[in-house]
Inverse folding.
């Protein structure tokens, strides 16, 4: 009996693919019992594992404290209740119970709204803090909590999230096992902690992995009915496989070594800019229209909901580092406050206002008398952004008209450049007495529109004592009672800017603190003014600065330096380092900087070592420590190799486990097929093997030709009875052939062909 190529054994293979395997049968081969308590229990355990594994793992990853026993008990109790109810298969009863659960859920949610709301924001605050620590940013404000007991609120919200997961999982597992949907429903909670390298505890991971493997087994077996009865059989297998994987993982790659062996993911690195924005601004990062940029504003106080710098370079500075203290570049001096902005002191009081003329002259005189306690430097400032139109001068720079020299050798991207001679404050040495400038009464004026709020704040802070003591008290008052954030919320008007900050909002960024601080000093009789400019730290210099090769240190700096001899450095300063601060006038010192903004600047005064040690890492001892460095390099290489082997071993084990499970499931499904179908499948595998290994075999069109080819090329014996039986199996109606015996003959033929092929 001949047939065309479209009906060869390859068609048997195609026929197999078109047919869906039968479902897993119950262990006794009978129909499901009316009520199976063990099946309901197994389903409840599975629902509990994926629900608590998701919720508990997320909370444990961040080290959040909550009542684990209560949370586990609540999730397990609801899982048991709903699973046993659903096992009755009475739709009216189950629907009524689920509706009842939702009603109770909604009632409690409304009644305990403030507890649940506070629990949600307590978790969000923890996530923000972890993200900000990981990304190295400051300024992301936290949410206020109406209920301060985080242990209570987090326990409550974890229970409520767990209840939602339980209800959804019970409904899902009643009709179909879907691994992808289960992962999307539960593992989504893990994305954020994993991104920020927060590891859930092993118990929750074990529960979640066991649940996923169990559901994966059910899905591969194409279970669509009596799912709870099948869970009873699949759950122990899933837990055993999960335990083996977790144990293997712990042996091959311990948690303590895991982070060192995982390379930085390029895709993750590409998303970190967005992550920084979200960690800093929260959901408001998605809405750019109501935000102000960074840099300086010329005394205009922003009414936007948040400050969102673009982190592009505004200026380039060249100078020789001399101290670990922050370096301030002054651009704008504010005089009068009208509720929305500061007027320009230079325009109202003359060109010299704000230049610190006599302070600079005093330090210049000190330098000329004794360069061992005072120094003279040159700083070059190159604006890159054309919007930076104001001059940016270092403190105590020479105020004479010819002191600021226009530079010609601009770095790439600069729009102009100036060079300043300045005399930095490098010691506490008293400067020679000079004739001070006349202080305008306007530096003591507190406008009526904000006087009430300023006076109340001064009283609450308990300000008294010398100007220096009052400066410390204001700084401490702000740090204790106010919060630094780049997203203070929209200012709607009504109250003036300072009154709104002091009495209502109590959170903001540098311009809020500097404006309020200026008025508080004035209210205490201390001349004060609002200042804008840029600031950068010693850490910025050593981490982001570049040494200008070929530049002579003595051409840019002379005299005493706390850091010793350094080098000419070039540093790009972005708009995010635009800043506002306060200057107060002291009789014996002149105008001095007061930093009242909390957490705006992180002064790095740890054991950073000298300048060259910070720049070069090993410093001048790198040659003498060569052997130690080589040993460290060798150790790093050994660790890297060990980590690579561990990761490869883990991957190999997971792949082997996957294909092992797949092979077992395929064998199980095949065992449930009718014997005639199993014969077709066996012959299809034999012909596929030969087509893959012998080009000539692929040109054959009929089973008769294929069997003859096997006899001619591999020396196997194929009887006429086997050929006819095979034709009847593929093309004739159901007959009386012994299909089990026929399948055994095909398997023997396949074994003989493989053996001959090997030789």
């Amino acid at each position: 009996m001949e047939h065309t190529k479209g009906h060869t054994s390859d068609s048997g293979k195609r026929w197999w693919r078109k047919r869906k395997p039968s479902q897993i049968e119950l262990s006794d081969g009978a129909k499901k019992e009316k009520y199976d308590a063990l099946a309901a229990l197994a389903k409840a355990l599975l629902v509990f594992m994926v629900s608590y594994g998701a919720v508990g793992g997320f909370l444990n990853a961040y080290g959040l404290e909550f009542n684990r026993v209560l949370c586990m008990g609540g999730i397990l109790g609801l899982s048991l209740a709903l699973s046993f109810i659903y096992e009755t298969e009475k739709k009216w009863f189950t629907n009524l119970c689920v509706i009842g659960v939702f009603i109770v859920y909604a009632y409690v949610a409304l009644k305990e709204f403030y507890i649940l709301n506070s629990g949600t924001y307590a978790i969000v605050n923890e996530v923000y803090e972890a993200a900000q620590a990981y990304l190295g940013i400051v300024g992301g404000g936290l949410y206020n909590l109406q209920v301060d007991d985080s242990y209570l609120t987090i326990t409550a919200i974890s229970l409520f999230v767990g209840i939602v997961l339980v209800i959804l999982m019970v409904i899902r597992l009643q009709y179909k096992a879907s691994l992808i949907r289960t992962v999307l429903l539960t593992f989504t909670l893990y994305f954020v902690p994993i991104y920020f390298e927060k590891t859930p505890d092993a118990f929750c991971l074990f529960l979640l992995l066991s649940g996923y493997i169990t559901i994966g087994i059910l899905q591969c077996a194409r279970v669509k009915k009596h799912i709870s009865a099948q869970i009873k059989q699949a759950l122990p297998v899933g837990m055993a496989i999960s335990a083996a994987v977790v144990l293997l993982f712990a042996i091959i790659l311990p948690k303590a070594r895991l982070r060192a062996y995982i390379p930085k993911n390029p895709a993750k690195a590409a998303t970190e800019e967005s992550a920084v924005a979200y960690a800093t601004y929260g959901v408001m990062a998605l809405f750019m229209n109501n935000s102000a940029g960074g840099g300086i504003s010329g005394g205009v106080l922003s009414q936007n909901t948040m400050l969102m710098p673009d982190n592009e370079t505004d200026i380039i500075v060249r100078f020789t580092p001399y101290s670990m203290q922050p370096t301030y570049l002054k651009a704008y001096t504010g005089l009068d406050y009208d509720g929305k902005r500061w007027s320009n002191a230079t325009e109202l009081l003359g060109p010299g206002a704000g230049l610190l003329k006599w302070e600079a002259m005093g330090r210049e005189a000190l330098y000329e008398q004794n360069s061992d306690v005072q120094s003279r430097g040159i700083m070059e400032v190159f604006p890159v952004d054309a919007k930076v139109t104001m001059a940016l001068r270092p403190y105590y720079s020479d105020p004479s008209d010819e002191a600021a020299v226009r530079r010609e050798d601009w770095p790439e991207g600069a729009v102009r450049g100036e060079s300043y001679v300045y005399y930095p404050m490098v010691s506490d040495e008293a400067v020679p007495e000079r004739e001070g400038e006349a202080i305008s009464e306007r530096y003591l004026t507190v406008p009526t529109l904000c006087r009430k709020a300023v006076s109340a704040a001064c009283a609450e802070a308990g300000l008294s004592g010398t100007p220096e003591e009052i400066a410390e008290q204001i700084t401490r008052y702000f740090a204790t009672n106010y919060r630094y954030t780049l997203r203070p919320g929209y200012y709607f008007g009504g109250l003036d800017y300072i009154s709104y900050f002091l009495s209502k909002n109590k959170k903001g960024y540098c311009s809020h603190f500097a404006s309020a601080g200026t008025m508080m000093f004035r209210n205490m009789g201390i001349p004060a003014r609002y200042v804008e400019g840029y600031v950068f730290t010693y850490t910025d210099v050593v981490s982001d600065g570049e040494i200008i090769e070929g530049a002579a240190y003595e051409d840019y700096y002379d005299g005493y330096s706390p850091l010793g001899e350094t080098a000419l450095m070039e540093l790009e300063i972005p708009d995010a380092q635009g800043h506002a601060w306060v200057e107060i006038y002291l009789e014996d010192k002149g105008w001095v900087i007061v930093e009242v903004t909390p957490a705006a600047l992180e002064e790095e005064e740890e054991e950073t070592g000298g300048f060259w040690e910070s720049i070069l890492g090993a410093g001048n001892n790198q040659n003498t420590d060569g052997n130690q460095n080589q040993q460290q390099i060798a150790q790093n290489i050994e660790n890297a190799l060990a980590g690579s082997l561990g990761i490869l071993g883990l991957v190999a084990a997971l792949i082997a486990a996957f294909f092992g499970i797949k092979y077992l499931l395929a064998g199980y499904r095949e065992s449930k097929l009718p014997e005639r179908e199993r014969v077709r499948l066996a012959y299809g595998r034999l012909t596929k093997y030969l087509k893959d290994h012998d080009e000539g075999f692929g040109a054959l069109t009929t089973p008769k030709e294929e069997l003859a080819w096997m006899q001619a090329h591999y020396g196997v014996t194929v009887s006429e009875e086997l050929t006819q039986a095979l034709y009847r199996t593929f093309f004739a109606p159901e007959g009386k052939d012994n299909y089990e015996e026929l399948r055994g003959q095909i398997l023997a033929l396949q074994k003989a062909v493989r053996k001959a092929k090997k030789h």
